[in-house]
Amino acid sequence: MSDATDQIKTTIEKNDVVLFMKGTKMMPQCGFSSRVAGVLNFMGVEFADVNVLADADIRQGIKDFSDWPTIPQLYVKGEFVGGCDIITEMTLSGELDQLFEAKGVVYNKDAAEKIREANA
Amino acid sequence: MAIEAQDIENLIRATFPDARITITDLAGDGNHWAAEVIDASFKGMNRVQQQRAVYASLKGKMEGSNGELHALALTTKAPE
Description:
Chain A is of the alpha+beta class and 120 residues long.
Protein backbone atom coordinates (compact mmCIF):
# COMPACT_ATOMS: atom_id res chain seq x y z
CA MET A 1 0.00 0.00 0.00
CA SER A 2 1.36 3.41 -0.90
CA ASP A 3 2.02 6.22 1.55
CA ALA A 4 -0.70 8.30 -0.08
CA THR A 5 -3.29 5.57 0.47
CA ASP A 6 -2.20 5.21 4.10
CA GLN A 7 -2.47 8.93 4.59
CA ILE A 8 -5.94 9.04 3.02
CA LYS A 9 -7.17 6.17 5.17
CA THR A 10 -5.84 7.75 8.35
CA THR A 11 -7.41 11.10 7.48
CA ILE A 12 -10.89 9.71 6.83
CA GLU A 13 -10.70 7.52 9.93
CA LYS A 14 -9.64 10.34 12.23
CA ASN A 15 -12.08 12.96 10.97
CA ASP A 16 -15.85 12.55 10.78
CA VAL A 17 -16.14 14.81 7.76
CA VAL A 18 -13.34 15.25 5.24
CA LEU A 19 -13.36 17.25 2.03
CA PHE A 20 -10.64 16.53 -0.49
CA MET A 21 -10.56 19.75 -2.48
CA LYS A 22 -8.53 22.10 -4.64
CA GLY A 23 -7.36 24.82 -2.29
CA THR A 24 -8.44 25.14 1.32
CA LYS A 25 -11.81 25.77 2.93
CA MET A 26 -10.73 29.34 3.59
CA MET A 27 -9.31 29.78 0.10
CA PRO A 28 -10.77 27.34 -2.43
CA GLN A 29 -9.05 27.32 -5.82
CA CYS A 30 -11.77 25.79 -7.97
CA GLY A 31 -15.45 26.61 -8.32
CA PHE A 32 -16.60 23.09 -7.62
CA SER A 33 -14.48 22.74 -4.48
CA SER A 34 -15.63 26.18 -3.44
CA ARG A 35 -19.28 25.24 -3.76
CA VAL A 36 -19.03 22.17 -1.53
CA ALA A 37 -16.79 23.88 1.04
CA GLY A 38 -19.22 26.80 1.03
CA VAL A 39 -22.21 24.55 1.75
CA LEU A 40 -20.40 22.85 4.65
CA ASN A 41 -19.17 26.16 6.05
CA PHE A 42 -22.62 27.70 5.79
CA MET A 43 -24.20 24.68 7.46
CA GLY A 44 -21.73 24.99 10.30
CA VAL A 45 -20.28 21.53 9.73
CA GLU A 46 -16.88 20.94 11.24
CA PHE A 47 -14.72 19.30 8.60
CA ALA A 48 -11.13 18.60 7.70
CA ASP A 49 -9.98 19.97 4.36
CA VAL A 50 -7.26 18.29 2.34
CA ASN A 51 -5.76 20.44 -0.39
CA VAL A 52 -4.95 18.03 -3.22
CA LEU A 53 -3.06 20.77 -5.09
CA ALA A 54 -0.46 20.64 -2.32
CA ASP A 55 0.35 16.95 -2.89
CA ALA A 56 0.36 15.25 -6.29
CA ASP A 57 0.36 11.78 -4.70
CA ILE A 58 -2.78 12.54 -2.71
CA ARG A 59 -4.37 14.16 -5.76
CA GLN A 60 -4.01 10.96 -7.78
CA GLY A 61 -4.29 8.71 -4.73
CA ILE A 62 -7.74 9.91 -3.72
CA LYS A 63 -9.06 9.37 -7.26
CA ASP A 64 -7.80 5.79 -7.23
CA PHE A 65 -8.96 5.21 -3.66
CA SER A 66 -12.52 6.36 -4.34
CA ASP A 67 -12.64 5.16 -7.94
CA TRP A 68 -13.84 8.66 -8.74
CA PRO A 69 -12.11 10.87 -11.32
CA THR A 70 -12.90 14.34 -10.04
CA ILE A 71 -12.24 16.66 -7.10
CA PRO A 72 -13.87 17.65 -4.70
CA GLN A 73 -14.73 14.45 -2.85
CA LEU A 74 -16.65 14.35 0.41
CA TYR A 75 -16.18 11.64 3.01
CA VAL A 76 -18.45 11.25 6.03
CA LYS A 77 -17.43 8.76 8.72
CA GLY A 78 -15.04 7.03 6.37
CA GLU A 79 -17.59 6.67 3.59
CA PHE A 80 -17.40 8.34 0.19
CA VAL A 81 -20.54 10.42 -0.29
CA GLY A 82 -19.91 12.04 -3.65
CA GLY A 83 -18.54 14.97 -5.61
CA CYS A 84 -19.89 18.42 -6.28
CA ASP A 85 -22.99 17.41 -8.28
CA ILE A 86 -24.12 14.77 -5.79
CA ILE A 87 -23.54 17.02 -2.77
CA THR A 88 -25.46 19.84 -4.45
CA GLU A 89 -28.38 17.54 -5.23
CA MET A 90 -28.34 16.07 -1.72
CA THR A 91 -28.23 19.52 -0.12
CA LEU A 92 -31.27 20.70 -2.06
CA SER A 93 -33.24 17.48 -1.53
CA GLY A 94 -32.53 17.33 2.21
CA GLU A 95 -30.70 14.00 1.87
CA LEU A 96 -27.50 15.57 3.18
CA ASP A 97 -29.36 16.56 6.38
CA GLN A 98 -30.56 12.98 6.72
CA LEU A 99 -27.06 11.64 6.20
CA PHE A 100 -25.59 13.97 8.84
CA GLU A 101 -28.35 13.02 11.27
CA ALA A 102 -27.87 9.30 10.63
CA LYS A 103 -24.10 9.64 11.12
CA GLY A 104 -24.32 11.92 14.14
CA VAL A 105 -22.67 14.89 12.44
CA VAL A 106 -23.60 18.26 13.95
CA TYR A 107 -24.96 20.81 11.48
CA ASN A 108 -27.25 23.82 11.44
CA LYS A 109 -30.66 22.80 10.12
CA ASP A 110 -31.82 26.43 9.76
CA ALA A 111 -28.85 27.17 7.54
CA ALA A 112 -29.66 24.13 5.41
CA GLU A 113 -33.24 25.36 5.06
CA LYS A 114 -31.96 28.79 4.03
CA ILE A 115 -29.91 27.22 1.23
CA ARG A 116 -33.01 25.38 0.02
CA GLU A 117 -35.19 28.51 0.23
CA ALA A 118 -32.62 30.49 -1.73
CA ASN A 119 -32.54 27.81 -4.44
CA ALA A 120 -36.24 27.01 -4.54
CA MET B 1 -12.05 23.10 -28.71
CA ALA B 2 -11.22 20.07 -26.64
CA ILE B 3 -14.28 17.94 -27.17
CA GLU B 4 -17.71 18.24 -28.80
CA ALA B 5 -21.12 17.51 -27.32
CA GLN B 6 -21.58 14.73 -29.84
CA ASP B 7 -18.30 13.10 -28.78
CA ILE B 8 -19.43 13.06 -25.16
CA GLU B 9 -22.81 11.64 -26.08
CA ASN B 10 -21.22 8.97 -28.29
CA LEU B 11 -18.92 7.82 -25.51
CA ILE B 12 -21.77 7.55 -23.02
CA ARG B 13 -24.05 6.01 -25.65
CA ALA B 14 -21.55 3.21 -26.29
CA THR B 15 -22.08 2.00 -22.72
CA PHE B 16 -25.72 3.03 -22.35
CA PRO B 17 -27.30 2.47 -25.77
CA ASP B 18 -30.89 3.08 -24.63
CA ALA B 19 -30.27 5.98 -22.28
CA ARG B 20 -31.84 9.40 -22.54
CA ILE B 21 -28.78 11.64 -22.77
CA THR B 22 -28.80 15.43 -22.71
CA ILE B 23 -25.53 17.30 -23.12
CA THR B 24 -25.36 21.03 -22.37
CA ASP B 25 -22.46 23.40 -22.95
CA LEU B 26 -22.67 25.33 -19.67
CA ALA B 27 -20.38 28.21 -20.44
CA GLY B 28 -20.53 28.24 -24.24
CA ASP B 29 -16.79 27.63 -24.32
CA GLY B 30 -16.75 23.93 -25.25
CA ASN B 31 -15.01 23.25 -21.98
CA HIS B 32 -17.63 23.14 -19.24
CA TRP B 33 -20.28 20.54 -19.91
CA ALA B 34 -23.31 19.12 -18.20
CA ALA B 35 -24.69 15.69 -18.97
CA GLU B 36 -27.98 14.24 -17.85
CA VAL B 37 -28.19 10.49 -18.28
CA ILE B 38 -31.40 8.60 -17.63
CA ASP B 39 -31.06 4.87 -17.97
CA ALA B 40 -32.97 1.83 -16.76
CA SER B 41 -29.74 0.16 -15.64
CA PHE B 42 -29.44 2.80 -12.89
CA LYS B 43 -32.38 1.31 -11.05
CA GLY B 44 -31.30 0.14 -7.61
CA MET B 45 -27.95 1.94 -7.82
CA ASN B 46 -27.13 4.94 -5.66
CA ARG B 47 -25.86 8.16 -7.26
CA VAL B 48 -22.23 7.32 -6.64
CA GLN B 49 -22.61 3.97 -8.41
CA GLN B 50 -24.56 5.56 -11.27
CA GLN B 51 -22.03 8.30 -11.83
CA ARG B 52 -19.07 5.93 -11.50
CA ALA B 53 -20.60 3.97 -14.37
CA VAL B 54 -20.91 7.13 -16.48
CA TYR B 55 -17.35 8.21 -15.67
CA ALA B 56 -16.18 4.73 -16.66
CA SER B 57 -17.90 5.11 -20.03
CA LEU B 58 -15.84 8.26 -20.65
CA LYS B 59 -12.74 6.09 -20.53
CA GLY B 60 -10.23 8.39 -18.92
CA LYS B 61 -11.21 11.49 -20.88
CA MET B 62 -11.49 13.25 -17.53
CA GLU B 63 -8.15 12.04 -16.26
CA GLY B 64 -5.54 14.51 -15.22
CA SER B 65 -4.74 18.00 -16.37
CA ASN B 66 -4.38 16.76 -19.96
CA GLY B 67 -7.86 15.26 -19.97
CA GLU B 68 -9.92 16.50 -22.90
CA LEU B 69 -12.92 16.83 -20.65
CA HIS B 70 -12.16 19.48 -18.09
CA ALA B 71 -15.53 19.86 -16.42
CA LEU B 72 -18.61 17.70 -16.68
CA ALA B 73 -21.52 18.18 -14.31
CA LEU B 74 -23.40 14.91 -14.07
CA THR B 75 -27.02 14.22 -13.29
CA THR B 76 -28.04 10.58 -13.36
CA LYS B 77 -31.28 8.81 -12.63
CA ALA B 78 -33.39 5.82 -13.49
CA PRO B 79 -36.52 6.49 -15.55
CA GLU B 80 -39.65 7.20 -13.46
